[in-house]
Amino acid sequence: MKKIAFYYYGNLLPAHQGNSKLAVSILSYLKGCNLFEVTLLMVNDAPLDESQYRGLCDHLISVDVSGIPWWARLLDKCFRFPQLDFYKRMATSVWLRSRFFARGVDYDCVIINYAQWEHVVPRQLRANSILLSHDIMFFRLQSFLRGTLLDRWKILLNKSCELSIFKRFSRVIVLGGYEKDLLLQSGIPDERVVVMGMPILNSINPVSDAIEPRYDFIFVGGDSAQNIAALECFVGAFRGHPQVANRLCLAIAGSIGTGATIRGIDFGGMNVQILGLVDDLSMAYARSKMVVGTIPMGSGIKVKVVEGMAHGKPVLATRKALEGIPHEHGVNVLVLEEVEGSEFGAFISKMLSDDQVLAQYGKSAQSSINEAFSEDSCYGELLKVIEEM
Predict the structure, then answer these.
(1) Rounded to whole angstroms, how far apart are CA atoms 65 and 53?
(2) Total tally of structural domains belonging to the chain
(3) Containing domain of residue 367, as a range?
(4) Both 185 and 321 in a single domain?
(5) Distance, CA of 358 to CA of 339 (rounded, Å)
(6) What predicted TM-score, i.e. pTM, was given to this entire model?
(7) Is the same domain home to 244 and 335?
(8) What is the pLDDT of residues 226-239, one digit of tens each?
(9) Does 255 share its domain with 337?
(10) Residues 209 and 317 both lie in one domain
């Protein structure tokens, strides 16, 4: 039985954000298939209940974030000055490595979920380890920086750093095929890059009973610049349609609803319901007619879009949010860029009032996403990679 170590920074449970949902799904699968001995290496930033993690790993080694020494934090701040995002936690990573691998490197494979944590993995294990890239950071930077000379310098510098890190690992796992194409163009060999898709369907349990809807739209997300931009994009689409906006009820779930930044958004008269952190989103989705996925920036595959489709809901999304997700406008999703304009308000109003159309979209969305990101298709390549280690 091969020994696998999976590193994660922050408490995994409850899984409220995309990267934690992805990690939980992967760990749950690896533990459940009974082929590996799984050790979770975790930096907990909140009180930890170890009993919650029994279904995710065989062993749990945790380090409290408050235990990170002052000198490591100080050195990390020094690396932030030249805009080197991938080295801004290098000192902390080195210190964590001494804690997690104090008893040696008795693992066949180590999986980390961001390139910036490269130095957590002992040097002798990096050539036999997996870098799970939930986001390709330089690609994300390209999508939201303004294009000034300083921004271009930051993108080039971080691109160089990130690609050099990728090359030091045995395999790089990305979520979308378009991300693999990007890495191949940047000189990463084809055999080193594996496309996994978004394997979170094993953690989604849609409500099968008919539920009376309370909300027209639901937005789910953490308190991040990307999600604030997504909400602003959604609200902006209704700027020229105040009569429609005034009749809409928008539910917002996740830590974004409790953050300070959201208070600066003008919702244009919408009835906004803040749900806060919701441990089980199934009922919240069931009570919503449509899902908001209007993300204008970033990389990877957007969990909120996959999650909404898997719950059998029509998703209003941008082209950026749909990257890496099989879709067809007007069949299983609504692409914002295709419908926005003078008729946008009337189109949305008509759709929200037609239960049959909503059901058709939702059924098609659920079917297509279940086929695209089935357990076999997502985990087949991952198991193959681990077996080759």
Answers:
(1) 18
(2) 2
(3) 202-372
(4) no
(5) 16
(6) 0.88
(7) yes
(8) 899 999 999 999 99
(9) yes
(10) yes
255-308 residue pLDDT tens: 888 878 888 899 999 999 999 988 788 999 999 999 999 998 877 788 999 999
Residue 380 and residue 367 share a domain: no
CB neighbour class for 202 (10 Å; exposed up to 12, middle 13-18, buried from 19):
middle
Do 319 and 289 have their domain in common?
yes
Determine the longest span between alpha carbons in the chain, in angstroms. Answer: 65
Evaluate whether 174 touches 381 at the Cβ level (below 8 Å). no
208 and 188 within one domain: no
Cis ω on the peptide bond leading into residue 14 (within 30° of 0)? Answer: yes
